[in-house]
Prior knowledge:
The protein is mainly beta. The protein is built from no helices and 11 strands.
Amino acid sequence: QVQLVESGGGLVQPGGSLRLSCAASGFTFSNYAMSWYRQAPGKERELVAIITSVGVSTAYADSVKGRFTISRDNAKNTVYLQMNSLKPEDTAVYYCYVRALSRNYWGQGTQVTVSS
């Protein structure tokens, strides 16, 4: 059974940092690309960052380039999202995603709120 469990969200002031984690289980983690998405109130879910299976390549939404970094530890079956210089418009629920075993899997999400 595939499970994705996010953690690390919270309330942070503008300009602050947070590190999200997503612990994966139920599939061979090192075989699959992993992604982070986010969904703000009243908006569609959007792709934030993606990392290939062995972490060689990454890609980011234009809105987060230079501020966010996606990484993974295949020994711990965990993917991370380091978020720096946070802005109020980064406020959203952040989701971990994988397409594995021919299906789409999402975590439960973790809330990130950027506010003074």
